[in-house]
Amino acid sequence: IRDAGSLLLAFFVGALSTVVGTICAFALIPLKSLGEQGWKVACALTSRHIGGAINFVAVADTLNIEGNIVSAAIAADNVVVALYFAFLFYLATPGEATNPDDGENEKITIETTKYEPSLGEEIVLPDEEHPIPITTSSIAYSIATASCLVTLGSAITGAICPNLSSLVITSLLTVLSATAFPNWFSKLRTSGTAVGILFLQMFFASSGAAGSLLLVLRRAPSLVAFSALQLAVHF
Question: End-to-end CA distance of the chain, in Å?
């Protein structure tokens, strides 16, 4: 909370505007073509626009949304979000800094922040003085730690609330573990980032491959319209 500052406030405002956008969009486009799955998809899309694709998966899993509808919703929303981001980039004005020292700070940031194009190369994270190179051992430790957290999160979820997605408890355990054992998790930062990016890209690729935009437009064009209206109200 201390580090986030005004960014945390901006997140809450954005999340609230997303909820308002969902309510307005669902009132105008109730997704009747999806039947009983309509309100569930609306909730999942809301969670995605607030916290990303992983939130979408967690909500879809919790609400038991059908697999073909999940693929269709992701495919439709990906198109709308891509156009929305392109619009935001178009509105962005380069060189808005007013502080004369910002230019020097920007140079320092650029010089100290480097991203290699290949996961086989050394990855340097922002503001990290002594980056830890990615090795077979560091990748193994990262995957082993993640596997333990996922297994424990699934076990706890099954014991206390079987209907809840295990991603919720797993995320909570990950945050608590990183807070309690910062030294251990700092050693896994570089390799964990690389592995996480790899699996996230695999998730997007598999989601996109499973969904057909033509099928979405033919069977449920309301998904595209709903997502577009949702983001328009948010904006």
Answer: 25
